[in-house]
Design brief:
The structure is a homodimer of 366-residue chains. With 366 residues, chain A is an alpha/beta fold. Helices cover 49% and strands 15% of the residues of chain A.
Chain lengths: 366, 366
């Protein structure tokens, strides 16, 4: 299960994103400058596109850089299954192939989510005991950060999947946020027992049962997420998580544009904005999605990160940094132990529920 | 179905909110001052609490004000069924009772959502053809507003319910936003067909089939909601809608507090903030939830608005204003016609799908 390659070798799918290979090459420059604990960076994509960019960036003599050729590119709107069946030499398939074959320790792609989940699930296979992968995204609050899991890999989830998300999210919060005992909350529409839908009610029972393996604090509401210091891991299915993530992105953009626009409306306001520039800068830094530019696709045999389709070089650099973190902490071997324990507890909970719902025999015989 | 009371008589449950009866009485003062088209305002609650407040507000001689006594109050955390069974003389039950008996034309309550939905569904009954109620909330974008429906009444919805939400939301957008042909979008995690979950896929088919009755523009993502000028009615189930609403509230609060805090960090920034005060004021106005402080519980025989549990007097005043709008436009009689037509189209779609999924007989006989 552990990659056979020694050291820290990271592969980057250099073709899938909206900003193309140049953003990836610029991220490579940043990664070498920052002296990340990186033995090698492998850029995967069309050789004739990548070589000139690498040369222009002054990386032609860089011994830690390697290019692996892949002739095809998967577009942002291609269907997962079709892209998998028809484009065997895509940069995405080649990148995940390197991870599968143990030639790299982690991989980053900003290709389309559906195709990435499809390729990864079929090529890398899921970790023992896990039945669906999940994407974990780090989101800023007023004073800290929380991990949203699943933010879009598995839109049709069962309670068992949410239990696994809780474990995966906990371990990821330990690695990426440096927390000892991350507080796990289940996203719902009220904090009282019985609120929510069938999925949250069932998941709540499972999460209570595995408390100890994780630090479960109960159901949380949307209002609590951004207060900071309340919850570190927010568990939900990939449909709700993706909607939450994108709605928040949309709202944050709206607020930013509205304020920029209104601050430019009069000369006096412009002066005021210039004087208070520092506050806006701090706001921008806190809300900066590039800081954790890669969201891992967890639950798989291999460290795979998904970067945003429109990831900048700074965001791709962060993704490479988080990839090295995942390799250092060997997340998956710890996840597998917790999942095995939780699955056994989960089966007991399910059995008990079946027994409780079975009617008592009225006449049990003589 | 239409209320028998003539004119515009609005009842307000004066006890259920966090801010208590004083916020309701203050809202009454605002309503009379603003000269809303209002024949009478009925405050429902404990006489010994309300009378002193009404006197102190200088409303004791107001001929358009009436107090109806109700001895009990339903708390914010009480369970819907228990509160309904045990507190027959609650201000909520009495308020809805007035609406049911045709003694008022519309009613407003800031009591707890679950109890309100339970009371209203049992006491008022649903409109012909509708099987679940839905809450519609108006949300600001950069340049306009959209209606989110359902924002929390029905967390476990079927495709049929979402079809009804689309119709209810359309009519509400016509009344409250003054739009001629509101663009209806289905909230999902991608705009391509096939994306989402079973509920969105089924609902998408139904909404396409009733295009014409509504102006359906297809699936929309969270990122699009706040762009403005894209979608006017956003359809989803009450679980997703409530999470979206509360998460957005949480994020907006976080941004506000963070900026306020950072603008106070240095004297120079404080001066800057004072100079650009106008921009923040405009932002605050746009994001002000009080502007549409009442969210109607649609799909019922009667105009019932839910105000936020922590509604201010300004928000309660808006709710009373929106209540008069609903009475003026007689929303429900138009909804019933569209729902009947949509249900018949919906049945055809469902039949066709069953036929398509039935295998052709191999041997159809001699």
């Amino acid at each position: 299960m552990a990659p056979v390659a020694s050291g820290r070798i990271i592969a980057v799918d250099a073709m899938g994103g909206d900003n193309g290979a140049s953003a990836v090459v610029a991220a490579a420059v940043l990664a070498f400058k920052a002296e990340l604990p990186l033995d090698k960076l492998v850029l995967v994509g069309q050789q004739d596109v990548l070589t000139p960019l690498v040369n222009a960036a002054g990386l032609s003599g860089e011994p830690r850089l390697e290019i692996v050729h892949a002739s095809e590119v998967i577009g942002m709107d291609e269907k997962p299954k079709t892209s998998y069946m028809k484009k065997k030499d895509s940069s995405m398939a080649r990148t995940i192939g390197l991870l599968k074959d143990g030639r790299v320790n982690a991989a980053v792609s900003c290709g389309n989510t559906g195709s990435l989940v499809f390729h990864a699930t079929l090529m890398l296979r899921l970790l023992d005991g896990i039945t669906k992968p999940a994407i974990a995204t780090v989101i800023p609050t007023k004073t800290s950060y929380f991990v949203l899991i699943d933010s879009g890999a598995n839109p049709v989830a069962k309670a068992e999947n949410l239990m696994h998300n809780a474990i995966l999210g906990s371990w990821y919060a330990k690695v990426v946020l440096g927390l000892k005992s991350p507080r796990v909350g289940l996203l719902s529409i009220g904090t009282e027992e019985g609120k929510g839908n069938d999925l949250t009610r069932e998941s709540h029972e499972l999460l209570k049962a595995i408390n100890g393996t994780i630090n479960y604090i109960g159901m949380v509401e949307g209002l609590q997420l951004f207060e900071g210091n309340g919850v570190d891991v927010v568990v939900c299915d990939g449909f709700v998580g993706n909607i939450v993530l994108k709605t928040c992105e949309g709202l944050a953009k709206m607020v930013k544009h509205f304020l920029e626009d209104r601050l430019r409306a009069t000369p006096v306001r412009l002066v005021g904005a210039a004087l208070s520039r520092g506050a806006f800068k701090e706001m921008k830094q806190r809300m900066n999605p590039d800081q954790y530019g890669g969201a891992p696709l967890l639950g798989l045999n291999g460290n795979l990160l998904k970067a945003h389709g429109s990831a900048s070089s700074a965001a791709l650099f962060s993704a490479i940094r988080v990839a090295t973190d995942l390799v250092t902490h060997d997340l998956n071997s710890q996840v597998v132990i917790d999942v095995a324990r939780a699955n056994s507890t989960g089966r007991e909970v399910a059995l008990k529920q079946v027994e409780q719902s079975r009617p008592e025999p009225v006449n049990s015989g003589a």
